Amino acid sequence: MSTKPQSESPVDAPQQGATNGQSASDIRLSGDELLLSADSDITPTLSVVMPTLNEEGGIAQCIEWVKAALEELQLYGEVVVADSSTDRTPEIAAENGAIVIEPDGKGYGYAYLYAFERVRGDYIAMGDADCTYDFEELPKLLNLVRSGEADMAMGSRLEGEILPGSMPPLHEHVGNPLLTKFLNVFYGAGVSDAHSGMRVFSREAWETMECSSTGMEFASEMIMEAGAKDLEIAEKPITYHPREGEANLESFPDGWRHVRFMLVNAPGYLFSAPGFGLSVVGVLALVLAWSGLEIGGAQFGIHTGIGGGLLTLAGFQLMLFGAFATVSSDPVRGASDPFTTWFTKRISLERGATIGSVVFLAGLAYGGFLAFTWVTSGFSALPIAVADVVATVAVVGGLQMVFGSFLLGSVIRE
């Protein structure tokens, strides 16, 4: 879905200095000439956004790398620095040709959101300003998007080269691969390094993603939204360098923010799938205990029945949670399992309450029958214990269905 650039390139724009017999296309402009200021009449093709928090040691080098990339591409571009620093970062950035803006809110994600609203290019690149990402590698990512091969191109550190001292071993071998696995399984991203901060995408792709996170989980949200919206993601290996200055990343708190955000926005995996699994195991155990069947000489009694009943109720409750989360929280990828689809699409308040009431009354009637049998026997013939469990499960499950339907009805209003 990538669009063709509408901005001027040096070939299209009028050039100063062209002599007789020398066409504009023969002139190669320098990176300094191709890097546009905020008041330039030329519209940039590429906007490079860098969020900065005390990056005075690396910002100048990063801008120089961008200039080198623009010179190789021979495209007009801009560098937009979303700055929240207390050091000389904004002054150094402005001196080197960047457009410096100051977000009116806090957070890694918010800095990007604020900047993306103000960029002018048809294509947007993003990356940290601490020299960990070499912006001279931008052309190979931009070309993937401009050619239509991808809606978003990412630089893969894990498939490329990680220079010594660039990434802690825990991040390289545990954190990043694990978070990438989560995103690939939950959202179908199909990438090798989901948390690489070096990315290029079209303006159309950005508008399709509809990201809103203001914290570090913004990096995950982009991949989640791209996967959920069926955008094409491609990767190219890149070199990851040691950072300049102090790190702003907190490994465990920021890692947990990513995991939490991924789970909350995938109720099918968080609630519905484990709930369905627990319910199947629970019902199977309950049937085995109630029927008295033997498997391989093993007998299933009251303990199996109690365990099966608990698993059935817990599983059903989790599936209800999945349905509620899907309809009430607008997750990135809502649950699409058969139960959630049936419960949210086919069950109205009245129908759900009716089904739940029938199950509740059936369990109550069965329990009453067992009690009646006990009483009429002169309190001598004790009911089968597993039967009591079945009756209890039906009563509690019916109540869950009734009140779950009312809760769903309070969320989905006609």
Automatic annotation (TrEMBL):
Does the record bear Membrane in its keywords?
yes
Locate the Low-salt glycan biosynthesis hexosyltransferase Agl6 C-terminal transmembrane region domain: which residues? 336-409
InterPro entries named among the record's database cross-references: Agl6_TM_C, Glyco_trans_2-like, Glycosyltransferase_2, Nucleotide-diphossugar_trans
Locations of Polar residues compositional bias? 16-25
Gene3D superfamilies named among the record's database cross-references: Spore Coat Polysaccharide Biosynthesis Protein SpsA, Chain A
Q: Where is this region: Disordered?
A: 1-25
Transmembrane regions listed in the UniProt entry:
269-293, 305-327, 353-375, 381-408
Q: Which residues form the Glycosyltransferase 2-like domain?
A: 47-206
Q: What is this protein called?
A: Dolichyl-P-glucose synthetase
Species the sequence originates in: Haloferax sulfurifontis ATCC BAA-897
